[in-house]
Automatic annotation (TrEMBL):
GO terms for biological process: pentose catabolic process; pentose-phosphate shunt. It catalyses: D-ribulose 5-phosphate = D-xylulose 5-phosphate. SUPFAM superfamilies: Ribulose-phoshate binding barrel. Its EC number is 5.1.3.1. This is Ribulose-phosphate 3-epimerase. It is an enzyme of class 5 (isomerase). NCBIfam families: PRK05581.1-4, rpe. The gene is rpe. Catalyzes the reversible epimerization of D-ribulose 5-phosphate to D-xylulose 5-phosphate. Its cofactor is Co(2+); Mn(2+); a divalent metal cation; Zn(2+). It comes from Acetivibrio saccincola. The keyword Lyase does not apply. CDD domains: RPE.
Length: 219
């Protein structure tokens, strides 16, 4: 099953609540929330208090992507705010296996993100502990970037690695995905698709989400 996850980063922040309700009613499967601290990545976005307020108005699963330094200090706050899944980066300077166990210890799903130039070998030994891997198809920090073509091969290799181990680990892809390239991303092995500008810039969110699903399967 293909899951569509609108990226909140592309929403109109002046009416964030309305934007979330809109994509929820339009058929989104989950909401991708980028948390940036201006240090791990150049941009600054939102924190746990905002997520907590948004959770009160939405029944969507919250897929919280932490692009921050020292995420272990903030896990509890994001769980309490309503995160259903927490994603951390393999590139962070921390004990990754311990961090994944901490996340799962809070009773939420755990995922690891890898940047475009980071090799898959960096997560090979923790795959069994993950619910999902997030393959970044742009360099993280800003929305609206173009899809980096070589990540398609990385998605294929990730799918082979997961299948070879007989695991049920989702592959999420984030960055520059639209109606023109979603099919090749899904064909390569992804099953959770993050899309920001394509969805939030569309006048009819229900139609664009439906089109993304159709293109994902049929090209």
């Amino acid at each position: 099953m293909i899951k569509i996850a609108p990226s909140l980063l592309a929403a109109d922040f002046s009416k964030m609540g309305e934007e979330i309700v809109c994509v929820e009613n339009a058929g989104a499967d989950l909401l991708h929330i980028d948390v940036m601290d201006g240090s791990f990545v150049p941009n600054i976005t939102i924190g746990s208090p905002v997520i907590a307020s948004l959770k009160r108005i939405s029944k969507l699963k919250f897929d919280v992507h932490l692009m921050i330094k020292n995420p272990e200090r903030h896990l509890e706050a994001f769980v309490e705010a309503g995160a259903d899944m927490i994603t951390v980066h393999v590139e962070g300077n921390y004990h990754l296996h311990r961090l994944i166990q901490q996340i799962k210890g809070y009773g939420v799903k755990a995922a690891v993100a890898i940047n475009p130039s980071t090799p898959l070998s960096s997560i090979e030994w923790i795959l069994e502990d993950l619910d999902m891997i997030l393959i970044m198809s742009v360099n993280p920090g800003f929305g609206g970037q173009e899809y980096i073509e070589f990540t398609t091969r990385k998605i294929k290799d990730a799918r082979k690695m997961i299948d070879a181990k007989g695991l049920k680990v989702d592959i999420e892809v984030d960055g520059g995905i639209n109606t023109n390239n979603i099919h090749k991303v899904v064909k390569a092995g992804a099953n959770v698709i993050v899309s920001g500008s394509t969805i939030f810039s569309a006048p009819d969110r229900k139609s664009i989400i439906r089109e993304l699903r159709e293109r994902a399967l049929n090209g």
